[in-house]
Specification:
four-stranded antiparallel β-sheet; NADH Oxidase; homodimer; 45% helix
């Protein structure tokens, strides 16, 4: 499994994409299928993906992202949204298990009751969860892209209202992150250094080490 | 790279851990080192990790997590926090690049100015970012654990105030997620089904497909 770990180390946020190269729809769908293997609270799957690969739309998206060149240069820019009302789709998510007998009706009802109790009327919790689930999926997406030989660039430097308007996303969808994916062009920066593990990790109680 | 992709598919949120087995401190540190390979806004690295592997502390953590058995049964439960004041450590994060000449002083000052402009006084943005960065790291952590032959269980079902108090985490640290990691015991559920890619993905504009 060592090459799994090397992929985690090799992934680096890129800036320079080869704008002449494309990624097939089949590859885009495959990358998203791996993103959705992420876990989510109760398996709600708050994530919704818009793959922007039409150059005219990429240019508009770039304008909504402070003119970051990579948004339009890359082969596809994914906008990942998180649904703050995601819990409303939970019954649909469990339906296949209920029908297959992998989940009984009492468990189904119990899980739905717990999830509704946790999220209904809890606006901050719903937003947190939309961002958390969308971000878990985002990391999987970048790893899958890297594993398939592409490079990626995650961004939060964009105007969320402008992005939602451009893509026609309803108000219950929070833009979580934007990720450009494509083929490398020369001149990308090497990985930025990280704080050492000892600085960010402690055992059994929190220790401030900065 | 196909085994990278298979690890993403094989990871499943587990419930049953072998409570007789441990994970070495070296392995715990290695897993966290991969988690910190995740990207973060401006490379702020909002994540802070507490690895709880003392059984007495695990029992208290379990009590703060609605008595979920796995919290104490597993070899180690990671609590990932996100620092809402993370931007205050950005100069420290860039210092090695500045010293090595990989970043000049003008870029250093410019990046710090942009980051402060984006986050200072923006409480919602700071919280969002703490959760986003912590979640990106969390996904890497689960993948690294899986790649090393362990199983994992992400949880948000816990009392955040009780967890912070137990571990002595200051108020600027938001508990983002809790992840139990360990060795599999029998009886874990298979992967829960996901919505099909076509249901959660559209091209160039958002399409509601539920």
């Amino acid at each position: 499994m060592s090459n799994v770990l090397s992929v985690l180390k090799e992934r680096v946020s890129a800036n320079n994409f080869d704008f002449t190269k494309t990624i097939s729809e089949a590859d885009i769908k495959e990358i998203v299928s791996y993103a959705t293997e992420a876990p989510s609270s109760f398996n709600i799957q708050h994530w919704r993906f818009v793959a922007v690969n039409d150059k005219a739309v990429q240019e508009k998206l770039k304008a909504a992202a402070y003119n970051q060149k990579k948004v339009a240069d890359c082969s596809v820019t994914f906008v990942i949204f998180g649904d703050v009302n995601g819990v409303d789709k939970l019954a649909l998510a469990y339906e296949p298990m209920l029908k297959a007998g992998a989940m009984d009706k009492a468990t189904f009802d119990g899980m739905l009751g717990m999830a509704n109790g946790m999220y209904k009327g809890n606006a901050q919790g719903c937003r947190d969860e939309a961002i958390r689930s969308g971000s878990l999926a985002a990391m999987n997406l970048m790893i899958a892209a890297q594993a398939k030989g592409f490079i990626s660039a995650p961004m939060i430097g964009f105007d969320p209202a402008a992005v939602s308007k451009l893509l026609g996303a309803p108000a219950n969808l929070v833009p979580v992150i934007m990720i450009s994916v494509g083929h490398a062009a020369p001149g990308n920066w090497p990985r930025k250094p990280r704080f050492s593990t000892d600085k960010v990790l402690s055992f059994n109680s929190y220790k401030e080490s900065f």
